[in-house]
């Protein structure tokens, strides 16, 4: 039983890593650069040198492999970075929206489990009743 659980846990970690890697590289191949899109607005009045400083601060000028490793290690430590849109740490955005998410997801999950038991019980015990 413990070998099965360890194998399933390892498979779960592999799936999480694959999903992270796929998402990271898909975001990298999108056209444009998030830092440039955010800060190249003429209304902000930033010079090219200031924009270059912002790219340096966000790590957008690093090689792709370094960005990947930095992001992966940061995620493993619970640091999800900063939202360019909101200007806040992503972890605080998640924490502020988690109660509303759980208030919707938890009752839906419990209802799904109850329905699954209700529908599966008669099928599983078809030969039980004399």
UniProtKB/TrEMBL annotation:
The keyword Transport applies. Keywords: Cell membrane, Membrane, Transmembrane, Transmembrane helix, Transport. The keyword Cell inner membrane does not apply. The chain crosses the membrane at residues 12-30, 101-120. InterPro entries: BPD_transp_1_N. It is a multi-pass membrane protein. One of its GO terms (cellular component) is plasma membrane. It is found in: Cell membrane. Pfam families: BPD_transp_1_N. Residues 1-105 form the ABC transporter type 1 GsiC-like N-terminal domain. This is ABC transporter permease. The gene is dppB_2.
């Amino acid at each position: 039983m413990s070998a099965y659980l360890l194998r399933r846990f390892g498979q779960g970690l592999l799936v999480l890593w694959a999903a992270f890697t796929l998402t990271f590289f898909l975001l990298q191949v999108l056209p444009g650069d998030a830092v440039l899109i955010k800060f190249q607005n003429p209304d902000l009045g930033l010079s090219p040198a200031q924009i270059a400083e912002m790219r340096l601060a966000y790590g957008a000028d690093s090689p792709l492999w370094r960005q990947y490793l930095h992001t992966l290690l940061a995620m493993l430590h619970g640091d999800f970075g900063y939202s360019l849109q909101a200007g806040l740490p992503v972890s605080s955005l998640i924490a502020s929206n988690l109660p509303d998410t759980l208030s919707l997801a938890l009752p839906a999950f419990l209802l799904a489990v109850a329905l699954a038991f209700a529908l599966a019980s008669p099928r599983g015990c078809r030969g039980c009743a004399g």
